[in-house]
Design a protein that fits this description.
Keywords: Kinase, Transferase
Protein name: Ceramide kinase isoform X1
GO molecular function: ceramide kinase activity
Bound molecules: the ligand CCCCCCCCCCCCC/C=C/[C@@H](O)[C@H](COP(=O)(O)O)NC(=O)CCCCC, adenosine-5'-diphosphate, calcium ion
Shape: elongated
InterPro entries: ATP-NAD_kinase_N, CERK_C, CERK_PH, Diacylglycerol_kinase_cat_dom, Lipid_Phosphate_FormReg, NAD/diacylglycerol_kinase_sf, PH_domain
Number of strands: 21
CATH topology of the largest domain: Tumour Suppressor Smad4
Strand content: 25-35%
Distance between the termini: 22 Å
Structural class: alpha+beta
Pfam family, one: CERK_C
CATH architecture of the largest domain: Sandwich
Length: 540
């Protein structure tokens, strides 16, 4: 459709005549002479929200309707578009327009197809990984019944891999030709996302000759976007980047070609790469809950409630040293109440500022060397590093409600040893609106890097160093050696990670998701009388 072309026709929709207009901005239809009792009715769908157009077959029942009786032949086309049903929850709606002129009908279909094709950020070919054992084991059914029909409607071709074991997606991604796909979709929970993300980041670094074991190596951002169809137990990554864990909504974000950059943090132990995470890295409470819940997988998502209760009663605390590099490049802070929203300005400015500071100092470590490390020794019930809010159905605001998706920072939350009662008060604040950082035993910092060493390792290092000095090499020389520490486990995006010492660094906007972050409430503020049929009002 050329820039000049603008279609404007009188077409029938639900047996009423409408003036329908199509231009680069989108599609609108309004009543030429609005019935006074109803008030003016007009509807508008922006181009970016049109999903598909199809020629519509007219069945006998429809053709016998009174309005059509006089006409010799009828033609129709159906436009599919995204509609906001309630906050963050999207649905695919359709409107079928009728006309008598076949040529006019074809002209409309052609123009709409061209308009949809002009949306270059939309994927055409997707590689889909389904974990059949995620959550309530409904991944395959959810994909086949709710997602695949939408992909097919949007003319997206797919290659589907149903995983057969843990790390299947990760291993597979190390050999597939990524150039064949416009995106990767994972159907499952946070653990499944983690598998896909490790496969994609690992592959990108390998192709670029970057050694992931080198904690100082600058990582290469991944070009391929990842889509998440939530079918897991917590679905935190989906919830915190879309605002809801709903498979249809996520499928529509993928179809419409949304793009949300995301920070990824790397976890190393000395010169050994351990894992990446995008949501929570938690030691103490959340690590122990995860470890205990893994033995209860058969229970489904209720395993987290049982393990949570048990871990709460055990009230273990862990001694160690946390050191961190505060983030100085961002204007945000963990308690400013400025939560991350679609097209977040804090994220944009933070990325720009970080790049400038790193350029000024020649490399990112030069910039980091200018800043002062903070050291805190203590007894902790929980050490949580939140790369994003970590909102999920259990905790709708998340563990750090003002954390940002793409600002190059994580929020480091230190929960010091306190009474069971106080810890319960703290946990309850994960589920309500109250400030969860307003406790004397909780500290929170916005950081770029942090290190943790458990007390046991520090003690044993002292002994080993002494022994080494006198007797030679010991196993503490091996970065992955854990000996028999009675420390906690790390909960790393829902995957367990055992390491008594780690070094963490946030990598600003390393990956991209088919998402757009949390849409502000204004998107849904429509008068209730018009909500039932109106998709998007504003241009009329
Ligand atoms: C008495 C009130 C207790 C309130 C507890 C509130 C729990 C808030 C949970 C927030 C967790 C957010 C971090 C996300 C972790 C997920 O990655 C992980 C794995 O998810 P999945 O692969 O989909 O299974 N989930 C957990 O670790 C569950 C933690 C639940 C703790 C009770
Ligand atoms: N076919 C499979 N069999 C067993 N484990 C698998 C399979 N496919 C993926 N996994 C692993 O299952 C783990 C949990 O998956 P996830 O989708 O997060 O489910 P849940 O949300 O229920 O924890 C992930 O670590 C993933 O690697
Ligand atoms: Ca962040």
């Amino acid at each position: 459709m050329g820039d000049r072309i603008r279609l404007s026709s009188s077409l029938l929709l639900e047996q009423r005549a409408w003036q329908v207009i199509l231009d680069r901005e989108g599609l609108e239809w309004s009543q030429p002479q609005p019935p006074s009792a109803r008030g003016e009715e007009s509807f508008s769908v922006p181009t970016s929200e049109i999903i598909a157009v199809e020629e519509t077959e007219i069945d006998e029942k429809q053709s016998n309707r009174r309005k059509w009786r006089k006409m010799s032949k009828r033609h129709a086309f159906t436009v599919y578009y995204m509609k906001r049903k309630r906050p963050h929850c999207w649905r695919c709606k359709e409107a079928t327009f009728w006309c008598v002129d076949e040529q006019l009908c074809n002209q409309w279909i052609q123009a709409l197809k061209e308009l949809i094709d002009s949306q270059t950020s939309r994927p055409k070919r997707l590689l889909v990984y389904i974990n059949p054992f995620s959550g309530k084991k409904q991944g395959q059914r959810i994909y086949e019944q709710k997602v695949a029909p939408l992909f097919s409607l949007a003319s997206i071709s797919t290659e589907v891999v149903v995983t057969e074991h843990a790390n299947h997606a990760k291993d597979n991604l190390s050999e597939v030709n990524l150039a064949n796909y416009d995106g990767i979709v994972c159907v499952g929970g946070d653990g499944m996302f983690s598998d896909v993300m490790h496969g994609l980041i690992g592959r990108t670094q390998k192709d670029s000759g970057v050694d992931q074991n080198d904690p100082t190596a600058p990582l290469v951002p991944c070009k391929t976007r990842i889509g998440i169809i939530p079918a897991g137990s917590t679905d935190c990554i989906c919830y915190a980047t879309v605002g809801i864990n709903d498979p249809v909504t996520s499928a529509l974000h993928i179809i419409l070609g949304d793009s949300q950059p995301l920070d990824v943090s790397s976890v190393h132990r000395n010169k050994t790469f351990l894992k990446y995470f995008v949501s929570l890295l938690g030691y103490g409470f959340y690590g122990d809950v995860l470890k205990d819940s893994e033995e209860k997988r058969w229970m489904g998502s209720v395993r987290y409630d049982f393990a949570g209760f048990k871990t709460f009663l055990s009230h273990h605390y862990y001694e160690g040293t946390v050191s961190f590099l505060p983030a100085t490049h961002t204007m945000g802070c963990p308690r400013d109440g400025r939560s991350c929203k679609t097209k977040c300005r804090v994220c944009k400015q933070s990325k720009r500022q970080l790049e400038q500071l790193q350029k000024f100092e020649k490399d990112r470590h030069g910039y980091d060397r200018r800043n002062q490390w903070h050291v805190i020794r203590g007894k902790f019930l929980a050490i949580n590093a939140a790369n994003m809010s970590c909102a999920c159905p259990r905790s709708p605001k998340g563990l750090s409600p003002s954390a940002h998706l793409a600002d190059g920072c994580a929020d480091l939350i230190l929960v010091h040893k306190c009474s069971r009662f106080n810890f319960l008060r703290y946990l309850i604040r994960h589920t309500n609106e109250d400030d969860q950082f307003n406790f004397t035993f909780v500290e929170v910092y916005r950081i770029r890097k942090f290190h943790f060493t458990s007390q046991q390792l520090e003690d044993s290092d002292d002994i080993h160093n002494m022994q080494k000095k006198h007797f030679g090499r010991f196993c503490s020389d091996q970065p992955t050696c854990c000996c028999t520490f009675s420390g906690s486990t790390w909960n790393c995006d829902g995957e367990t990670l055992e390491s008594p010492a780690i070094q963490v660094e946030v990598h600003c906007q390393l990956i991209k998701l088919f998402a757009r972050g949390i849409e502000p409430p204004s998107k849904y503020e429509e008068s209730p009388s018009m909500v039932q049929d109106r998709s998007y009002v504003g241009r009329l």
